[in-house]
Amino acid sequence: MRLDKFLKVSRLIKRRTLAKEVSDQGRITVNGTVAKASSTVKEGDELAIRFGQKRITAKVEKLQDSSKKEDAAGMFTIIKEEKLSEE
Fold this sequence. Notes:
Family: Belongs to the RqcP family.
Mean pLDDT: 88
Structural class: alpha+beta
GO molecular function, one term: ribosomal large subunit binding
Distance between the termini: 35 Å
Subunit structure: Associates with stalled 50S ribosomal subunits. Binds to RqcH, 23S rRNA and the P-site tRNA. Does not require RqcH for association with 50S subunits.
Pfam family, one: S4
Low-confidence stretches: none
Protein name: RQC P-site tRNA stabilizing factor
C-alpha cells in the first residue's frame, strides 16, 4: 500500500494531499529511510513522522483499503512520541 494512502486510511494524517506534502518535505521515514508518498508500506514497518516540534514513531500492524474511525486505530501502534527541542 502507498504511504500516503496508509496515513490517510489509518487517520495518522487527515487528508491524503497533506500526507503527500509532508512526505515530499522529507518529514517521514520508513524503517529509517526517508520516504516519498509513493513508497510502499508493509505490515511490520516502522514509521517516524515529524509534526512541527513533535515526532511520532509508529509500527504498521495491518493494512486495509478503507476503515471506519473505530478500526483505524488498530492499523498502527504508537511506539514512542517525543518532543523535539527548538534549535
